[in-house]
Please model this.
Amino acid sequence: MKFCSNCGHSPLSFRCPEGDNFKRLICDNCQMIHYQNPKIVCGAIVLWENKVLLCRRAIEPRIGKWNLPAGYMENNETLKQAAEREVREEANAQITLQKLHTVFNILHVNQVYFLFLATLDEPVFSNGIETLETRLFDLKDIPWDDLAFHSNVFALQQYIKNPKAIDVHHADSLSFTRAPK
Ligand SMILES: [Zn+2]
Model:
């Protein structure tokens, strides 16, 4: 961020405001503090008859790689609404959410993934605008080497390990490394 979005002043200072514990971008002209916080990414492990729905990305980053349908949560929506919307947008599919399955912190890009377990309402899906290809994969045929994100690898590994697990799975980008298949 180079300019103050409130008054247009530049440059912004990076310093700790009085009474705060973190450095912030502060406008020395209008005194606005520009807080920056993690972004929430919502999506789902969408199942149909023991197969999982994956989308091949038509956009960067990781264009051409497969991922669970997921994307940034919007203002004025809930986690569940965001997950349902992302599946609608990326795969043109209607789902029923079962439960929250995975929370994955990606520290270096300040994102938190919330991935739900869900089922397709019917086996109908197609490519959304950000998707090159949409496909149901048998769990033993998941293209592990071509998955776009560690968050997806972790969530799918946990699901395969214990499909009936009740607890939410937590991990983060520092402690999780891709285990061999
Ligand atoms: Zn300003």
Q: What stands out?
A: The two ends are 41 Å apart (CA to CA). Residues 79-91 form the longest helix (13 residues). The pocket of zinc ion is lined by residues 4, 6-7, 9, 27, 29-30, 32 (CB under 6 Å). The domain at 1-36 is CATH 2.20.70.10 (Ubiquitin Ligase Nedd4; Chain: W;).
